[in-house]
């Protein structure tokens, strides 16, 4: 069988690329990816947009010399998303890559209950994304900026939205409803949605490959541990529960987010300690988690280094923060066993999950009842891009798998176009 025959899903996009865009209010991450194999041809970040520090960095993975790599056109700050995209377009033209692009795939954070699948963007879809800004006020408007800018810069290309919430739309009512008056759900869409969906889906798919089983026959618990952290339980290939809720604040403790707290604390902060609602928001989202407890940093590397250096003034505090972080994640993993009859294994991903042997060991050491036991040697060896099973042979599997949300967005955009408009590409 030739390579092309083995990949009948993407006949039209073979050899083509998808431009993947992840747009924040002042940043724009982009990568040009071949959907069939996940090869990144080019990637980059424009940041501090619309400020005097605005800058853009493009990294080429197509064998250019250093000299060529550095020859990015000099831009005068401040500049905005549109200018950053024009710079990118010029580069793509220069590199003869523009004709290889068949679509733009956008990461969109909140799809509410409207989108369980990747969706071709049109005016209606944009209006719905704008309406859903009520549920994701920081993210959806920024995602729309990226969509609008790309529609101008790549007016002939189809644009696809891939939603962070989509994978979790398979959650049953018992998992997505809060114990709140039902009319809040009916009238105001207050329910649990979950995030990091593309990442949990990608690592589950990779773990199924490692098991040599179809994803629909697999059950996993996956822990995405980065600056944001979430745990998801996947049954027969579908998300059936996840730790994040209506917003990414719920669930396990994170870099700067508290995760679950007694909601009564909010009344206490406001009524007894004089906090404004805005201050509570900042406290819970930006000043809590690893940063708040350690009084040092939200960065796991900094905390591990401080914990191990007994002379560091925050050594004890750093260890405390990491210990609470790991205990809360272990509790979340254990609680999700309530959703499953069988479990093929646990998956660690995200910057911390992929790299911190200490965090993985600390979490797994509290999950012996579920027959999780790490092989110390494999745990130490599986870092910095290495992946694989880090459990003892006699124990339940525990994989480290590097996530690749961009590849999922490229792949799903290509699949959508192939099924929607065969022959047009
Ligand atoms: P984001 O959620 O912003 O995408 P990442 O997935 O890149 O973040 O994760 C960032 C986190 O990963 C940080 O806390 C960082 O300290 C942690 N991390 C990265 N490398 C290591 C490492 N070698 N050891 C421990 N933690 C690491």
Cα separation of the termini: 25 Å
CATH architecture classification of the largest domain? 2-Layer Sandwich
Rg over CA atoms, rounded to whole Å, is 22 Å
* Cofactors, ions, other ligands: adenosine-5'-diphosphate
Question: H/E order of the elements?
Answer: HEEEEHHEEHHEHHHEEEHHHHHEHHHEEH
Summarize this structure briefly.
The protein is of the alpha/beta class. It has helices at 3-6, 66-70, 81-94, 123-131, 140-153, 173-176, 182-188, 197-211, 264-272, 277-286, 289-294, 300-308, 315-335, 350-355, 357-364, 376-381, 405-420; strands spanning 17-23, 28-33, 40-47, 55-60, 101-108, 119-120, 159-163, 220-225, 229-235, 238-242, 345-349, 388-389, 397-400.
Describe what this molecule looks like in 3D.
This protein has 425 residues and is of the alpha/beta class. It folds into two domains: 17-163, Nucleotidyltransferase, domain 5 (2-Layer Sandwich), CATH 3.30.420.40; 213-405, Nucleotidyltransferase, domain 5 (2-Layer Sandwich), CATH 3.30.420. 38% of the residues lie in helices and 17% in strands. It has 17 helices and 13 strands. The chain has helices at residues 3-6, 66-70, 81-94, 123-131, 140-153, 173-176, 182-188, 197-211, 264-272, 277-286, 289-294, 300-308, 315-335, 350-355, 357-364, 376-381, 405-420, and strands at residues 17-23, 28-33, 40-47, 55-60, 101-108, 119-120, 159-163, 220-225, 229-235, 238-242, 345-349, 388-389, 397-400. The strands form two sheets. Strands 4-3-2-1-5-7-6 form a seven-stranded mixed sheet, with helices on both faces. Strand 8 and strand 9 (229-235) form a beta hairpin. Helix 12 crosses helix 13 (315-335). The longest helix has 21 residues, at 315-335. The radius of gyration is 22 Å and the shape is globular. Mean pLDDT is 91; it is low at 1-13 and 67-71. Adenosine-5'-diphosphate (ADP) is lined by residues 226-228, 255, 299-301, 304, 350-352, 355-356.
């Amino acid at each position: 069988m030739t390579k092309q025959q083995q990949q009948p899903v993407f006949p039209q996009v073979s050899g083509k690329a998808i431009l993947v865009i992840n747009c924040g209010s002042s940043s724009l991450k982009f990568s040009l990816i071949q959907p069939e194999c996940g090869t990144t041809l080019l990637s980059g970040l424009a940041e501090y947009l619309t400020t005097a520090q605005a800058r853009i960095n493009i990294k080429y993975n197509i064998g250019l010399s250093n000299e060529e790599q550095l020859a990015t056109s000099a831009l005068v700050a401040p500049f905005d998303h549109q200018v950053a995209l024009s710079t990118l377009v010029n580069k793509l033209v220069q590199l003869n890559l523009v004709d290889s692009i068949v679509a733009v795939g956008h990461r969109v954070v909140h799809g509410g209950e409207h989108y369980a699948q990747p969706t071709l963007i049109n005016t209606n879809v944009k209006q719905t994304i704008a309406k859903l800004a009520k549920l994701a006020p920081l993210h959806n408007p920024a995602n729309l900026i990226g969509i609008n800018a790309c529609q101008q810069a790549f007016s002939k290309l189809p644009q696809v939205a891939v939603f962070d919430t989509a994978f979790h739309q398979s959650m049953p009512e018992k998992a997505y409803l809060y114990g709140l008056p039902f009319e809040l759900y009916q009238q105001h869409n207050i329910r649990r949605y979950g995030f990091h969906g593309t990442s949990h889906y990608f690592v589950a798919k990779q773990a199924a490959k490692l098991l040599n089983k179809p994803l629909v026959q697999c059950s996993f618990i996956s822990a995405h541990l980065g600056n944001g952290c979430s745990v998801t339980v996947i049954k027969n290939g579908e998300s059936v529960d996840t730790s994040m809720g209506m917003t990414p604040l719920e669930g396990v403790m994170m870099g700067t987010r508290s995760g679950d707290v007694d909601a009564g604390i909010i009344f206490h902060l406001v009524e007894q300690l004089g906090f404004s609602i805005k201050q509570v928001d900042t406290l819970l989202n930006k000043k809590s988690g690893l940063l708040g407890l350690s009084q040092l940093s939200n960065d796991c590397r900094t905390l591990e280094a401080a914990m191990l250096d007994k002379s560091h003034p925050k050594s004890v505090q750093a260890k405390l923060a990491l210990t609470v972080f790991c205990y809360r994640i272990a509790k979340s993993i254990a609680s999700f066993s309530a959703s499953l009859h069988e479990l093929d294994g646990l998956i660690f991903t995200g910057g911390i999950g992929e790299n911190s042997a200490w965090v993985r060991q600390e979490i797994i050491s509290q999950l012996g009842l579920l027959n999780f036991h790490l092989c110390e040697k494999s745990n130490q060896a599986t870092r910095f891009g290495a992946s694989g099973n880090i459990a003892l042979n006699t124990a339940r599997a525990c994989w480290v798998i590097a996530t690749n949300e961009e590849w999922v967005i490229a792949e799903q955009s290509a699949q959508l176009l192939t099924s929607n408009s065969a022959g047009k590409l």
